[in-house]
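Researcher: I'm preparing a figure for a lab meeting and need a structural model of a single chain. I don't have an experimental structure, so a prediction will have to do for now. The sequence is pasted below. Please return the structure as tokens so I can convert it later.
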Amino acid sequence: MRLATLNLLNGMSLADGSVTPARLVEAVWELRADVVGLQEVDRAQPRSHSADLTRSVAEAMEAPYWKFVPALIGTPGFDWRAGTDSDDDGAEPAYGIGLVSRWPVRSWHVTRLAAASVRSPVVLPGSRQVIWLKDEPRVGLAAVVETPIGVVTVATTHLSFVPVWNGVQLRTLTADLARLPGPRVLLGDLNMPPPFPRVLSRWRSLAQAVTYPAWEPRIQLDHVLASGSLPSVLAVENPELAVSDHRALLVQLGS
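Model: Understood. Here is the structure written out token by token.
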């Protein structure tokens, strides 16, 4: 059982700043994952050729079960509004998270996480320039999945850059996930280094590996957290892929 989290950076390659479908397919195939949590995902954005990137990943994985949930409608860093549940299947440009599974999904669950009231520092991809942006709303997406080891709740999220506030969001999300069937796994870009995700959530960490920046990783921002009984961790991988400024983080479970 291979579970992965990947911040897509809207499918962009830092090699030339372009979004190329072939590179996205290459990245997905390299993961060979059964379930993938995706962050910084575009749908109907001109910068990513108006593609539905969650659908593109699902097609590349030959995975029949997938869902995209917008955190915001519009373009990050420009004009946008907070996404709502009624926007899930809309046609407007959207940005958020996605979850893709090769295995059957019994049900989907969404947790909306409010933005902080302060601006957040953001490092521009491919540079060291820091800009201060209005904090964006966040969202968590969970799937109750029928896996070879039984029913597992697998979730993904992308938390705020704002320290402390991202911890509040993590506690809110894990409390919601505790109501779903266990065991549970959270895949995501939590925007905080160890040991904070484990300490704040009281879930255990399944993977320790640096993930950011992709070309010379120095810090772990991407995490795989677990609650409940799961098979042993057989391998942890943090490959640099053809897309994104993050490395993927992948956990292989088995006995």
